[in-house]
Structures
1.
Amino acid sequence: MSDTATTAPGTRATSGNPPSALRVGLQRGYIEIRQFLRERDAVVFTLGFPVGLMILFASIFHGEIGHTGVDYRQVFISGMIASGIMSTSFSSLAISIAQERDDGTLKRLAGTPMPRASYFIGKVILVLATGVLETALLLAIGTAFFGLDLPQTGARWLTLAWVFVLSLVACSLMGIAMSSVPRSGRAAAAVVQPPFIILQFISGVYFLFSALPSGLQQVAAIFPLKWMTQGLRSVFLPDSFLGQEPAHAWEHGRMALVLLAWCVGGLVLCLRTFRWKGRRDG
Amino acid sequence: MDNESDSDDNLAISVRGLRKTYGKSVAVDGLDLDVRRGEVFSLLGPNGAGKTTTVEILEGYRSRDGGAVDVLGEDPGRPPKAWRTRIGIVLQSVNDAAELTVEEMVGHFAHYYPNPRNPGDVIDLVGLTEKRKARTRQLSGGQRRRLDVALGILGRPELLFLDEPTTGFDPEARRQFWSLIRLLNDEDTTIVLTTHYLEEAEELADRVGVVSAGKIIEVGSPARLGGRDSGKATVPWTGPNGPESEQTDSPTRVVTELSRRFDGEVPGLAVSRPTLEDVYLKMIGAAR
C-alpha cells in the first residue's frame, strides 16, 4: 500500500454507463474457462469421468444386439455422449453455481455494475466449450478404439447439431435451477449427482432402453436424458436398429418437443428461483 | 440527531426510520443516519446490533421493511443501473475465484466499470505488487482482504463501504491500510467503515455512530463521543507510599499542586481522558 496517488482526484465513475452485457459476458466466458481448466478436480470429474466409464464399459461388454448389425458398444457410446452433455451442463453448473453462491462469488458480483446477464453468458460459453470438448473426446475414442462410425450423411450431422444444442440448453437451465437446492457448496455434489446417476440407469445409457420395465421407461420419458440418448442413437446407429426402439421410430418431433418444453420450464424455474445470496446471508 | 443545516446535496447517505425484521426478531428498529459527502463515517456496535443488516440495506443487498433510505440520491432498494458504478463494496469473508491470479482478477473486474482505475496501479496501491502473479488461494488472510479492497476501489467509487476490512491484519499491514484509506478520502471518496477495532475508528473516522439494538444511540467525533472530552480526567503519579491517582474535572490544577508538592519533577505522572473504548463500553452497557 504505497502512498502514490495513481490518478488525479475528481475523475469519477459517474461518467458513462456500465459496459454492455455481451462484452462483459465474453470476458466472463474467458475467465470461466481459465478457472475450469486450472481446477484439476473439475476437469477430471466433469470431462474424465464419462471418458473413463466409456472405456470401462466398452471394454467389458460387447456383442451384436439381436440381428440388428449393431454392437452393444455403439449403443452404449451414443448414450455416453448424451451423458457427457448432461454432465458438462447439468452437473457442472448445478455444483459450481451452488459453490459460488456459498463462497461469495455471486454476492460479490451482485455488488458490482456487472450486468446480471453477463454471468449467465459466461456460463453458456463455459458449457459450450466443455460440452464440445467432451463430445469430441468421446467421439474420438469411440471411433478410434470401439468401432463407432461417424455420422454418414449430412442429415445425421444436422441431427447431431440440433440434439446437442437443445440438450445443452435444457440441461444447463435445469442445472442452474438445481443449484438452488443444495444447502451448502460442500453438499452440492452429493445432492446433484444421485438424480443424474439414476437418470442414466433408466434412460438407456447403461442398459438397452427397450429392455427396461415399461414403468421405468415411462418415468424416464418425462426427463430429457432418455430423449437425448435416443437422439444420439439416431445419429450413430443404422435404421436397422429401429426395431429395438420402443416406438420403432426415432421420434425426432417428440424429442424436440420434450427438450424444448424442458428449456421453457427450466428458464421459468431459473427466473423464479435464482438467488444471488447464500442461505447464510438471509 | 445531527446538524440540521445539512442539505440533501451534502449527504451521501440519509436514512430515516429504517426497519428490518427477520420473523419475530427486530434487527433494525427505526434507525436514523446521515453520512456527509467526503467524510469517513464509522459504525460501531456489538455483534447482532444491526450493523451488517443496515450496511447491506444501504449497499442494495437486502430489502427493508420500513423507512426512507437515500444513497447517492437513489433508493438502494430500486437503484438505476449506473448507481452501482458509483459505489464500492468490500465484503467480509469472500473466498471466490481461488484459481485466478491477483492480476487476472483485478484486470477482469476492471471490465465491469465505465471508467476504472488502472489495474496495475490498484494492485500497487493495496501493496500486492509482489503477489500479482499468485493464485488467490495462495494468499494469506490479510493479502486476501487487500485484494477485496482492490476490487472495491477499482471503479473509482464516490462511496466506499468497508465491512471490517482489517480483520486478520498484522499491526504493520493495518497501518498501511489506514494510509490507503486516508489517501482515498483525500480524493473525496466518502467512506462507511464498520469495525470492531475502536483504535481504527479513532484513527480514521471523522464521525462515529454507535449502534445498539437496531438503533443509533449516539453520533459524534471520536474525540467527543459520549462527552469524552469533557469527562473526568485521571491523574496518576507515584507517591512516597506507591502509586496514587486522582479523578478530576481540572487536571491542570492537580498537576500544578503536585509539581509544588514534589518541588519539580513528579514521578510517574500522566493525565488521561477516558479512551474511546471506555466510553463505548459504557454506552453499550447502558443501552443493555
Note: Confidence is low (pLDDT under 50) at residues 1-5 of chain B.
2.
Amino acid sequence: MQKKSSVEIVTEWDIVAARQLGRNKAKEIGFGTVDQARITTAISELARNIYLYARFGNIHIEWIEEGDKKGIKIIAKDKGPGIEDVRKVLEDGYSTSGGLGAGLPGVKRLMDSMEIQSEINKGTTITITKWLR
Amino acid sequence: MEDLEREYHKILADYVKEQSERTLYIGQNFVRQLIRRNISPEDVVSLHKDAVETIYPAQFDELRLAYDFLIEMMVHYGMAMREHQSLLQKQAEIQMEMNIAANVQKTMLKTPIPSDMTIDIGMLSKPLKNVNGDYVHFIDDKKYISVAVTDVVGKGVPAALCMSMVKFGLESMEEYAHDPEHVLGVLNRIVERNVDDSMFISMFYGCYLREWGLFYYASAGHEPAFLYRAEENKFYDLEAKGMLLGIVPTTKYKRSEVLLEDGDIIVIVTDGVTEFRRDDTVDERQVVASLIHDVKGLPAQSICEYLYSELEEMQEFELKDDFSVVVIKKV
C-alpha cells in the first residue's frame, strides 16, 4: 500500500481524480462513510479552488501516524496569485460563494486542522489533516 | 454519539411497530437534542442508515448505496449549516459590542439641561438604532445659556463616531460658547479636515442672554427652528442661512436674533422630527407646529415628550431617523 500519492490539477476532471484518490486513501486508513464523505468534500473544495483561481497545482495525499493515532493529511499546492489576507479568507461569509458554507472556513470545519501559507504572486499551500477517532 | 445511536434506533423501531403520534413527538424532542449538540445533517443520515440496517437487515443491501449517496450530498448541507451557526454567533458578538458602544455614547453625550426662574428648557433625543447620530449640547453660564443641536446625516455607527468629534470640538471652545458664528466656523473647518466627503453634519447653534431675554443664533444647513409668539398666537420660522458643516472650509456663518417675551417658545428640532410624511399633501412643519400649540401651556420637558409620543404614533411606532427636540420657553 502506497503511503503517499498525488494528483495534478489542470482540468476540471482532475478534481474528480483527486476526490477518488482521497476517498480510497480515507477508506484504507479506516475512516467511516461520513468521514470519508467529509474528507472527499474537503479535497474537492481545495482542488476546485486551485482549478478556479490558480489554474493549476497539485493535491498531495498521505497517510500519517503519530504514536498510535492514524490520520490523513492533504496538501494542496499551487503557484497562483496567492491570498492577500489569510485572516479574511478564514472569515465566514467572506468568500464569494458566501452563505453556501463552502470556502476555506467550511473546509476547516470538516477537518481537524488547517494551515495556510501564501505569498502574493508566488502561490499558496494549504495543508489539512484529520485523525481517525 | 453511541447513546444517540441507541436512542434513535429505539425511537425508529417503536415508530415502525406502532406508528403512534406519541413516538413522533418523542422523535421531535430527540431532534431538538441533536440540534443543541450541533450534530450535522450527514451524521443524522448516518444514524438513520445504521438504524434501518438493524431493523431491516434483509432488505438493507439494496438501500446501502442510496444512503451513502445521501450522506455525500448532506456533507454540503452540513457545511452551510455550520457556517450559518458561526455567522449567528458572530452576529451576537457584534450586537453585544453595539450595546456597549451605545452605553459608552450615552455617558459621553450626557448634557445637563440648564434652567432658571426666567427660562424653562426641555430636551429629548432618541436614537433610531442603538447609537445616536443626533447630539444636543448645552452650556450654562451666568450670563447666557447656549445650545447646539446637531444632526449627522446618516444613522448608526458612522454617524455616532462623527458625533464624538463634534462634542469635543464644542467642549474645546467653551470660552466662545456665546458666539455662534465663531463656533460654527471652527467646527466647519474641523469637520472639513477630518470627515469623509460623504458625511454631512448640520447644526443649529443658539444663545440666550439671560438678562436681556435675547436669543441669537446661527445655523449650518440645519432645519429652521420654530418660534411661537404668545402675544400673536402665531408661529414663525427661525431661519438662518449657512452651509452644512465640512463642505467649504471658508464658509462664514451669520447671526440672527429675536427678543423673547413671556410665553414665547422656541423649538429646535432635527429632521427626524419633521420628516415623517407618507404623502405629499401633509405639511410636516405645520403638523409639528399645531402639536406644539396644543400643549404650549405645559412645562418644556412635557412638550418634548408630547411631541415624541404623538409623532411616534403618527409613524406607527417606526421612526425613520434619530429624533431630537429642544424646547426653550420664556416664563
Note: Chain A touches chain B through 17 residues (CB under 8 Å).
3.
Amino acid sequence: MKITDDVPSTLTALDRPNSYIGRSVPRPNLARLTQGRGHYVTDVTLPRMAHVAYVRSPHAHARIVRIDTTAAKKMPGVIAAVTGPELAKVITPWVGVLTHLKGLKSAPQSAIAIDRACWQGEAVCAVVARTRAEAEDACALVQVDYEELPTVTDPETALDAATHVIHADLGDNLCFERSLDVGTVDAAFAGSDAVVETTFVFGRHTGVTNEPRAIVADWNPGEQRLTVYHGTQAPHMMQNLFAKHLGLEESQVRVLTKDVGGSFGIKVHTYADEMAVVALSKLLKRPVKFVADRIESFVTDIHARDHRVKAKIGVMNDGTITAFEIDDLTGIGPYSVYPRTSGIEANQIVNLTGGPYACPNYRAHTRVVFQNKNVMCQYRAVGHPIACAVTEGLVELAAAKIGMDPLDIRRKNLIADNAYPTGSASGLKFEALSHHASLDKLVKMMDHDALRAEQTALRHKGIYRGIGFASFIEVTNPSAAFYGVGGAKISAQDGCTIKLDAQGAIVCHTGVTEQGQGAEAVIAQVAASAFGVAIERVRVITGDTDNTPYGGGTWASRAAGIGGEAAWQAGKALRQNVLAVAGSILQAKPETLDIRDSQVVDAGTGKERIGLDEVARIAYFRPDTLPPGFQAELMATRHYVPRAFPFSFTNGIQASYLEVDTDSGFVKLLKHWCVEDCGTVINPQLVDEQVRGGVVQGIGAALYEQCVYDERGQMLNGNMADYLVPMASEMPDIQCGHVVSPTADSELGAKGAGEAGTAGAPACVMNAINDALRPLGAAPLTDMPFTPGKILRALGRVS
Amino acid sequence: MSSLQCDITLTVNGETIRETVEARKTLVDFLRDDLGLTGSHVGCEHGFCGACTVRLNGVIVRGCLTLAVQCDGAKVETIEGLSDTGECADLQTAFETRNALQCGFCTPGMLLTAQELLASDRVPSREAIREHLSGNYCRCTGYHAIVDAVEAVAKARAGSGT
C-alpha cells in the first residue's frame, strides 16, 4: 500500500522540530468509524424522543385548499399532526437574500407550507409519532385538498410576459441578474482570426450524501434551552438561525454536530423541514427526530448546476485568446435558499469564467429565475465546474479550430507564473498561482507524448480514445467578502482554544467542523507542531456551540486554511504561556526555552529541562511554589480571518484519458490526473483524498448524474436506481501531484483543497470525449451528463 | 400499515436474541433500533447503496432488503461483531492508514463486502476489487484509496499464508 510521499514544508516558520506539517499522518479518529462505533445524528436517541414524518405536496404548484388531520390524529402512537399555519405560531418565516448581490429578491418561506405548495416535495403537514413508521402510517391518512396552479418549469420562458408569476408580490420570476463588460469585447471578436460559439448545458444534480439529512431537536422547558443534534457544516450559523426564528437568545440554543455522513455543501443550508423540527420540539416540549429518507432527499436536498450557458471565444491563429463572452441562465426553484442565497452559483460563474487566462476582454450576463422545482443552492465547488467547463471547453474547441495542440494554446494564454500578484478580467485578485508549473508537472506525470502516440496507434485499429485537459482556479479561504458583507451571520473568522491538561497533553477546541475531510487531523497536526507535543498527546473537539470558539464551520475549502491558522497561532501562544511557567520554575528566561516532544528544552542545545507533565503538575496543584504574583495561563485562544485578499485562490490542472465505445456510446475512464497547488500541504494524503473524491464527484456530473423533471415539475428519477452515481467499477485510478505556492496571508500558508477535483473533472472528461470523437466528425458534446444516447446522437448513430 | 407481530429467535454476533418484531420491520432497522447495533447504516432503503450490508448465515446481504422475520433461526453478523472478534482487523487498520474512509458512513458495509471478496479470491486484481465493491456507494473517497487498502491487505494475507 502506497502512502503518499511526504511533502517537505517550504516555510521556515513551520520548520519546528518534530513538525507534522507536510506529513501523511493517519487521522486520529478513524478506528471508531471502521469499528461501527461512530455517532451520527441518525444514531441519536433521547428519552421521550418522537419522530416526525411529513406529508409532501405531490404537485409542483398548488393551492392548499383544506387539510384534514382528524383520522391521522386517531392513529396509534400519533402525538400531533401540525399544519403550516399552526407551526407559524412558533417559528417565523425567512427570506434568502444578501445585500451585496444587488437586486437579488425572494419570497418569505415557511417551515411548513402555508396556503400554497411551490414544488413537488414541499412539506404541507407534519405528523409526529412514537416511531417513524407510525408517523408515516398516519401521514397516509392526512387528507389534503389541492387546487393545482400553473407550473413554471422552463427557465427559458420563466421571464416571458405570458408565464405565470410564482410570487405575485415580487412582480416577476427574476431572482437575480448580473452583467459585466470589461475591455473591448466586440472589437476583440471582430479582430479575431477565429470565433467559436456554442451552448453548454449542465444537468441539475444533487449531493446524494450517504447519510441523509438528519436532525434531533430537544427543547427543554425546564431550562428554557434548545439542544439540536444536527448533521450540519456550520453549527454556529444554525445556532443563530434557530434562535432568530424561534424568538430565542443564541445562548438558549446549543448545536451539536458529531459524525456527519457526508456533506459536500448539502448540509450548510436552512431546510424548511429541519426548521420545522426545532419548532415542533418547542411546541411539543420533547425531543423530535427527523431523518430524510432517500426519496425525500432527492426532492428536498438542494440541487445545483442547472445552467445553460451560451458562450463564445475569439482566438488568433497564433493561439492568442482575444475575448470570452457568456450568457448564463439558471432556474433555482421557487425560493432563494436561506441564508446563503441561490444567486451565488451564477455569480461565481460570472466571476470565474476565463479566470486562468490572461485575456482582458470579457463580457458576461447571468439571469437567475424562479421555477416550480426543488430549490437549488451551493453544492461542492459552487459555480466552478460550470465556469471551468465553459472556459476549458471553449479553449479546446478554439484550439481544434485553428489546428493547435490543446496544451500549446494553454501555454500561450495561461497567466504567467511570474505575473503575480495580478487579477482576472472579472476583477478577481490572485496572490500567487502556478498554472505553467502545474501544466509542466502534469505532462510529466501522465507521460503525455507516449499517451498521444498510443491514442494515434489505437485509432488506426478503430479504438477511439481521448485525452482532455482542464486548467482551473478555485476559491478558498473566504473572507467576510463572501457572506458577511451581505448581511448574513456566517462567520468568516474562526477560533481555536488550546488548553494544557493536568498530564501535559493538550485539548483543542475549534470552530471548524469534521465532515470526514480530516479537519480534526489537520488541527491536531498543526497544534502538535506549534506547541511541541506528539500528535497522540492532542485531542480535538469540534461541533459544539457550547464548547468551541465561534466559527464558520466547514465550507468553501476553509477548514485547513482558516481553522488551521487559528490552531497554529493558538499553539504558539500556549507554548509561550507554558514556557513562562517553565521559566519561572527553572529560573530561566522563557525565550531561551522551547517545547519539543512534550519536554521543555534549552532552545539552543535541545537539552531536556523539565517535562510538560511536571510543569502541569506544579502549575495546577502546587502554584504556591511559583514566584509571588506569577499566574500561569494554561489555555490560549487565537482567531484568524484572511484580510489581505478576499479569497485565497488555488489553481491546478487535470487530465482525463478515456475510451468511447462508438457502438454503445459508453465511456470507459482509463486514468485521471490532477496537479493542484493549495499552498502549504499540511497532510499530503488528506489533500490527495480530497482531490480524488472531488474528481469522482465531478465525473458523476459529467457522465451520470441528473435530476430529471417533466414539464409539470415532477422529478422522474428520485431514487438511486434511476439517478446514477459513480460506483467503484466505473471509476479510474486518479494520480495526484502538487505544486506549492503558499499564501503569505497566514503563517501556515495553507489554502483549501476541497473543491479542486470537482471544479475541473467535468471539463476534462468533456474535452476527452470530444477529443476521442473528433476524428469521426462528431458534433462537439457540450450537454452534461454525456449519456450513451447523447454520444450516439453526436456520432449520428441514432437520431 | 401492519401491526402483525412475530416472535423470532436468532444469533446476532454470537449472542442469542429472542424478540417480537413487526412483520414489516427490516433487518437493519431491527439491528439499529431494537438491538442498538448502529454500526450498520441506512443510506437508501432500497438496496442500492450498500451502507446496510450485514452477514446473514455467512453471506453478505442488504439489511434494508431483508426482513427481520426472515432471520428467524439465522446467524447474523455485523461490523460490531467482526470488530470484537478481530476477524478483519487488518482490513480496518489498512482503511485507517490509507484514509480509505472519510465520513465513514459507507465503511462498515464496505469492510464486510471486502472481507467477503478476500475470503473467496486471495489476491484479486484492482479491477476485481472494483467490481466486487461496485454495490457499495461511497461519495467521499472516489474509491481509489479503498481499492488500495483492499489490495494491500490481500497481498499481505497471501504473503503471510493466512
Note: Confidence is low (pLDDT under 50) at residues 1-6 of chain A.
4.
Amino acid sequence: MSTLTPGFADPVLDAQATFRAVLEAMSRPGRIQRAGTGLRPPAPMMPAAAAVLLALADSGTTLWQDAGTDAEAWLRFHCGAPFAAMPAEAAFVLATGAPPVIADLNAGSEEEPERGATLIVQVAALEEGAGWRLSGPGIEREHRLAVTGLPSDFVAAWARNRGRFPRGVDVILCAGERIAALPRTVAIAEG
Amino acid sequence: MSPPDDRSAEGGGDLNRPGQTKGPVMEGYNFAYLDEATKRMLRRTILKAVAIPGHQIPFGAREMPLPYGWGTGGIQVTAAILGPSDTLKVIDQGADDTTNAVSIRRFFTRVAGVATTERTAEATIIQTRHRIPEQALREDQVIVYQVPQPEPLSRLEPRRAETKRLHSLADYGLMHVRLYEDIARYGHIAKAYDYPVMVNGRYLMAPSPIPAFDNPKMDRMPALQLFGAGREKRIYAVPPYTEVRSLDFEDHPFRPIRAPHACALCGSRESYLDEVITDDRGGRLFVCSDTDYCSGRVALREAAE
C-alpha cells in the first residue's frame, strides 16, 4: 500500500469551509465554488471530491466509489464510512469514471425523499456563463454552466430524475478544486 | 492571551487555532460548541433540505445549553453553518437587545469567537425568532429561523405518520378547510402569525411564528432561508429565489396585517409595529418591532436635522 496522504489540515475549519461551499453550490445551482485547496488525495480522486466526502461522509453514511483501492484506503481512513457493494445502496456515490445510471441510485421514498443519494461526479471542466441553461429554485432567472466530460445522455437522464420529484438524486460536479451542484429541483436546458 | 476586545468581555483562554478569529473563547469546547460528527449530520440534513424546498427532514437534535423553546433548533443550524469569518446577528421578535437574542449572541462569541452585530446589513448569518428584518436581505446572507412547531398540519392532524403521508401526497385539503372555516365564521382568515405557505408549489410549510406581515418577504428572497426545530427535531429550508405563496382563496386573497399607525420613534408607516402599553389608563404607543431598522431611521433623521 502506498503512503496515505493527509486529510484536512484543520479538520474543523476546513470541513466548515467545504460545507459552506457545497451549501452555496446547492443553494445556487450552476454557480461554481472552490473546495479542497491543498488536498492531495490519491489519483484519480480530485481535491474537490475528496473535500466534499471528508466534510460530509462518516460512519453514519454508506459510500460507493469507483476510484480504486488507493482511494478506498484513503476514504476508509479519513472518513470511516462503510462501503456499499452496489451504488444503489449508498448515500454518497463517487464517480471518477463513467457515472452510474442515475435511475439505479437510491431516490428515497415519497414520504422520505431526503434518503435520496448524493452523486459526486468528477468531470474534466466546469465553466460559468456558457453551456447549459439552468432554472429552478435558487436561480433568479437563469444560470449557465458548461460541463465537459459527462455522458451524452446525462441531460435526458436528469430530466427523468427531476420528473419524479420529491424523490430523486442530487448531484455535485467536481473539476479539480471547483464544484457546482445540481439539486433535484433544477431544470437543465441544453445550449 | 490577547486582551479582551469590545465584543467579548468574558470567556476563557485562546483556542489558538490557525485562521480563527481572535477573541477570548471558552476552553474545552469544539469550535461552535457541537462535535464534528453532529455537525456532519446537521450539514447533510441541511443540504437535503435545500434540495427539497419546504420538506421537513428529521435530524438527531442534541441537548443544547438552553431550554426547548429558546431556539435549540436555530442554534444547532447556526452552529453547523457558522465559520470564523461570519458575522452573526440574532433577533428575538425583531429586537437585538432581548434576553434570548443577547444570550445566543454571547454563546457564539464564547464558543466560536465570531464577530457579532446588531446591524442587519453587516450580518452574514441572521438567526431569528419570529421576525424577518425590515431591510431586504442579500445573496450573501443566510437567515436561520427558530421554529417551535415545524408541522403546519399539527393542529389539524396530530399523528406524525399521517401528516407525513399527507405531505407525500401533497394533500392539503385540511388546511384549506381550516382557512375556509375562518371565513365562514369571521368573514376573513383569522391567522395573524405562522400563516401557512406553499413552497415552490409543492410543500405546505410553517413559516415559524413570524407575523403574516412578513410572509411576502419570504417569496423569492435572495438569501438562503434555513429552519430549525429543536424539540420537534426537524430541519427544512427555502433556497434563494424560490416561490413562497401564502395560502388563500381567489375571493379572499392573502392580506398582510399591520397596525394602522406610524412608529412613535421613527415615524415609519411601512414597518411592522409592536403595541406598547404605557400606563393603566389606556395609554399606548406603537413602535417598530425591528430595533435596528428603527434606530437606523432615527439616526438618519437626527443627522439631517
Note: The longest helix of chain B spans residues 36-51.
